[in-house]
Amino acid sequence: MSAGATAGPSGAGRPIGVFDSGVGGLSVLNALRAELPHERFVYFADTAHAPYGERGDAFVARRTSAIARHLVDEHGIKALVVACNTATAAAIHELRAAHLTLPVIGVEPALKPAVALSRTGHIAVIATRVTLESRKFDALRGSLAAQAHFHIVPCDGLAGAIEGADSVRIATLCEKYLGAAGNFGDQPGHVDTLVLGCTHYPFITDELRRWTGDAVRFIDTGAPVAQQTRRLLQNAGQLSAEGAGGVLMLSSAAPEALDAATARWLDGPVDRAIRAWTSDTPTA
Length: 284
Hints:
Blueprint lengths: L2 H4 L9 E5 L5 H10 L4 E6 L11 H19 L3 E4 L2 H14 L5 E2 L5 H7 L4 E6 L1 H4 L2 H10 L4 E6 L3 H6 L3 H15 L11 E4 L8 H8 L4 E3 L2 H14 L10 E6 L3 H11 L8 E2 L9
Parallel strand pairs: 1-2, 1-3, 2-9, 3-4, 5-6, 5-7, 7-8, 9-10
Helix pairs in contact: 2-11, 3-4, 9-10
């Protein structure tokens, strides 16, 4: 561990690391801060390489490993939340094997809660292509195949449009992808539940709602991830019981873009975003 880590707080006072390819993980960070108001967080946005959903598994795994090492060595984190569906699918097992004593919490499309809530048995899942083509997702869907009909829609470009706050492209892509998901509503054969399988998507629920109508339930992973993080820290005796908490924002490029996204989407005060680098940075 580096001097930066050993000089910081010890035990329960250490921060929780959270990372995503860009700003999508802010939706998970919101849920974490609501569930764990006394905790300190370090959020890393890998903006230089966003979005991960249009990269290959090997690239995503290398970046995930490098960022995890940076957060452990330089910030002394006590837990790591991989607030990215694509990185979870590509690298969560390797991360846990490399950091045996560190609680590592990933995210995945919330198919199980969707099955429990759906009345028509028709569920649409929107996510990046890498997430939907992963073995992890395929196994999850296969385990639930007898319980619901899943309408799977890979949403190429949507996370990038959200990352760039491109409202025109967001609207165009939402029309395209939700049109491909089938008929929405609460009638037999209609899709009545929409799984938001990318952490970017909770930020465009108003646009999504234009195409689904009000009867459709939206499900994301923020609250379950926050609850699991609490359980793991509590079991390890690492929960912070007092203090105001806080967030340090880091970005691999364009910290001003992370500042703007934070002001737009994140609840509560944060430290200004600063630029950080990690080792083993692939360029393609």
